[in-house]
Design goal:
The complex is a heterodimer of chains A (333) and B (486). Chain A has helices at 2-24, 33-36, 42-77, 89-103, 114-137, 143-168, 172-180, 188-207, 209-215, 219-224, 229-251, 257-269, 273-297, 306-332. Chain A is mainly alpha-helical. In chain A, helix 3 (42-77) packs across helix 12. Chain B has two domains: 2-255, P-loop containing nucleotide triphosphate hydrolases (Rossmann fold); 270-485, L-amino peptidase D-ALA esterase/amidase, CATH 3.60.70.
Chain lengths: 333, 486
């Protein structure tokens, strides 16, 4: 029990630290004092609350959403390389989002929520297509099969996006920047757009934490233990897709967060989903806030897309996990 | 109570299992046997509801399993499938705790003392408490298996379905695990259905066995009704021999390898017996199937060396078996491959004779000392004394189990007749002795050559045994008496 308590305390401290760093460091360094005493420096407070804070909160939400979705996908598929990006779900969400922008779609009654909803629809459809195709190829859904299927779908969907971009002609740079992933210049409206879906998606996954534990032993075993596998699996896939859709809609495709964070969290705190899910949520938020900070400060005044930073960290971790799985696989067999 | 009626099903439309029906009562254990590919695991999946039945039904306490919600079914029935590999690791405690999943209710954690007790008890039963905090992937296959059995036990279900529960376990843990499950079945009135790889284990632990062949019930019933040579041979396509368990009223089988070892032809000959003042020794090049009442290695078995050792009339050692074994070893002979007898008679007076019949030859070897004759019909408690008639019958032929027994009877009758012929008296009663108080007998056969299914007095071999033992014993008694007179 004390280990779990420690896990939450450490994760909260990391998150708090990341937020403080995120809002104080930048082209203008702001004293943390402004956080609780805005009156001390009104101009700084303005930057902090209207520019930096929404950016930090958005980065945190996106990181949290991708990380918890990644943790759930990995548990569900018993596949340590699964995350919204490697499964192609992010690309699906992107297609949904780009289509919305490209055709200027606005669904009735949804208003500004059209973008995240279309993203989620794209994510969910891709999820089912990838799962269905992988199962067709290989009933046992081996790790490599699922990831390869994800890559195939990613490439295909990527080409669709490229086509749409080519057809728009204008605003090319902006869309490409968005695609590479960024949380800059979004402001509070984007936070409002994503927040409800991220709360709902995370809650759905959290409700399935025990089921995810059982499913680590395989769907058949989970059924023996009394899990209503069909229902729960659907709930987890929908929850994960909602989170991915919401994140992509506001920030574009940011890869590897859903891979790196659950992996590190599992390594340090264990793979019990009752704790893995909330801890991944917090650590994902902290990581993306820090990545965003790096993205906007490393070659300041130019900003790097945040996806570049996460890929820079994530791809080697991906390679490392793959290497370890393969090595472990041969020695355990 | 588990009731399976006309169950058929498999993967998709094709039936792998067809028309299986049986019933297992509370507290009873049913073992499912069958060769690879006979559909054992598929039957298990149909029973557990992982695969839907195409025809027929599985009922728990009269209610179809399809009508149970997933959690409720898991509270009634716990399943142990074959071991799986996982990508992520849980600790042993976390794994066993998952067994309590069907008992968890609500959105938030509802871990009760009942849950905790069930988990600890299951870990205690499977002897894995000390691994509690270990990651499961760091355990050996056998230890993992015990963790999964504990997980199933923690479910506290009234029905246990086990798919080869003793997989990966060494013999000690196989026994421990099945003992535990059997005990649980009896104490908690569990219904147990288990697939077995090992026919003998199944026969020992199960009340009922089901022999599955090509997805159909080939035989069902108590172990003695199912473990029959011809049935096992038909289903498993291999030669087996059925024999009783040495301590339990359960049938067991032994495999008969088809690979013929290149055995030397061994013909026992009287001149190959080495006789000295110290012992009579016969060393065979191939093991002989032997039944005896010897000091070392009595009962039945296969042995190469046969020793009848002379000891002093006052020989008195606490552990004569160990002393005899070390004596044999001192002579450079392996005691585990040797039948050892003792006699106070001068071993150079041993009579060894060869008799020829139409099937081959037999050799009779007798050392006779009658100073301690006993009329068995008037036997009273006597102090044990060495002074003995040791009779060996060695047959060049294949003796059946009953032939061994008949050979013993025939030999004993012939010996008694010899004592009567020589007017050996029981000194206490004054009547004619039937033997001495410590006589030993040995029948050994090469199990090569002709089949000799019977060895009673009307058979060729029986006639030779009767004649040979009589002659040799008479001669032996005469030599003994001469020696005494001198």
């Amino acid at each position: 029990m004390s280990k779990n308590l420690l896990a939450y305390i450490v994760s909260l401290l990391l998150l708090g630290g990341a937020i403080v760093l995120g809002v104080t460091i930048g082209t203008v360094t702001i004293s943390p004092v402004v956080l609780w005493n805005p009156a001390s420096d009104a101009a700084a407070a303005n930057i902090l609350w209207n520019i930096r804070m929404p950016r930090v909160v958005l980065a945190g939400l996106v990181g949290a959403a991708l990380a918890i979705a990644g943790a759930a996908f990995q548990g569900l598929l018993k596949n340590p390389l699964a995350d919204p990006y490697t499964l192609g779900v992010s690309s699906g969400a992107s297609v949904g989002a780009v289509m919305t922008l490209f055709f200027g779609i606005s669904l009735p009654f949804l208003g500004s929520f059209t973008l995240p909803v279309m993203s989620m629809a794209g994510a969910l459809m891709t999820m089912f297509l990838v799962m269905g195709f992988a199962k067709l190829v290989d009933r046992s859904m081996k790790m490599e099969t699922v990831i390869l299927t994800g890559i195939i779908f990613s490439s295909f969907l990527g080409s669709l996006i490229s086509l749409m971009i080519a057809l728009t002609g204008e605003e090319l740079r902006q869309i490409i920047g968005w695609l590479l992933g960024s949380v800059s210049m979004r402001g509070w409206p984007y936070v409002q757009m994503a927040l409800p879906f991220i709360i709902i998606g995370s809650f759905v996954l959290w409700l399935n934490r025990r089921e995810l534990n059982a499913m680590l032993f395989g769907e058949e075993r989970a059924q023996h233990l009394g899990v209503d596998v069909k229902k729960r699996k659907l709930a987890i896939l929908i929850g994960g897709s909602v989170l991915t859709g919401a994140a992509v809609a506001v920030s574009g495709t940011i890869g590897f967060v859903g891979l790196v964070v659950p992996h590190m969290t599992r390594l340090v705190w264990g793979s019990d989903h009752r704790h893995l899910l909330p801890l991944s949520f917090m650590n994902g938020a902290a990581l993306l806030i820090v990545c965003d900070l790096a993205a906007r400060t490393i070659i300041s005044p130019t900003e790097l897309p945040i996806g570049v930073i996460t890929a820079f960290i994530g791809a080697p971790v991906f390679a490392f996990i793959f290497f370890r799985q393969r090595k472990g696989g041969t020695s355990n067999a | 109570m588990l009731e399976i009626t006309n169950l058929s099903g498999g993967y998709g439309e094709k039936n792998i299992i067809s028309d299986v029906s049986f019933r297992v009562e509370k507290g009873a254990m049913l073992g499912i046997l069958g060769p690879n590919g006979s559909g054992k695991s598929t039957l298990m999946k149909l029973i557990s509801g992982v695969l839907p039945a195409n025809v027929g039904s599985v009922k728990i306490s009269g209610r179809k399993i399809g009508d149970y919600p997933a959690k409720e079914l898991a509270r009634e029935m716990a399943v142990l499938p074959q071991l799986h590999v996982h990508a992520f690791s849980h600790t042993v405690r976390e794994t066993v705790s998952l067994g309590r999943y069907p008992h968890q209710q609500g959105w938030f954690s509802s871990w009760s003392t009942e849950d905790e007790d069930a988990v600890v008890e299951a870990m205690r039963l499977m002897d894995i408490l000390h691994y509690e905090k270990t990651q499961i992937d760091q355990l050996s296959g056998g230890e993992q298996q015990r963790v999964f059995v504990a997980q199933a036990l923690a479910q506290n279900a009234s029905i246990l379905l086990l798919d080869e529960p003793t997989n990966h376990l060494d013999i000690n843990h196989q026994k421990e695990l099945l003992d535990t499950i059997k005990k649980q079945a009896i104490e908690k009135d569990l219904t147990v259905v288990s697939i077995f790889h090992d026919i003998n284990l199944a026969a020992m632990y199960c009340d009922q066995l089901l022999l599955l062949d090509k997805g159909e019930v080939f035989q069902i019933g108590e172990p003695h009704e199912v473990i029959r040579e011809q049935d096992i041979e038909a289903v498993y396509q291999t030669r087996v021999i059925n024999h009783p368990h040495p301590e339990l009223p359960k049938p067991q089988i032994t495999l008969l390898p088809n690979v013929k070892r290149k055995t030397e032809i061994n013909n026992i000959k009287a001149e190959d017996f080495s006789i000295t003042a110290e012992r009579v020794l016969y060393r065979s090049r191939v093991p002989l199937k032997t039944v005896s009442s010897a000091v070392v290695n009595p009962g039945s078995g296969w042995y190469r060396n046969f020793m009848n050792r002379h000891v002093d009339a006052n020989y008195n050692v606490d552990d004569s078996v160990e002393e005899m074994k070390s004596y044999i070893e001192q002579k450079g002979i392996k005691s585990t491959d040797t039948i050892g007898m003792m006699t106070a008679v001068q071993t150079e007076h041993a009579i060894v004779k060869e008799y020829e019949g139409p099937f081959g030859t037999i050799i009779i070897a007798v050392t006779a000392g009658v100073g301690n004759g006993v009329d068995v019909s008037k036997a009273v408690e006597r102090t044990m004394q060495v002074g003995t008639i040791n009779t060996w019958i060695m047959v060049n032929g294949i003796l059946s189990e009953e032939a061994f027994i008949q050979a013993m009877i025939t030999a004993t009758e012939a010996k008694t007749k010899a004592l009567q012929h020589e007017q050996v008296l029981d000194p206490l009663t004054g009547t004619i002795a039937t033997g001495t108080s410590t006589d030993s007998c040995l029948v050994a056969a090469t199990q090569q050559g002709e089949q000799l299914p019977y060895a009673g007095p009307v058979t060729e071999v029986g006639k030779l045994i009767g004649l040979g033992v009589f002659e040799c014993t008479v001669e032996g008694i005469k030599l003994y008496r001469e020696a005494k007179r001198r």
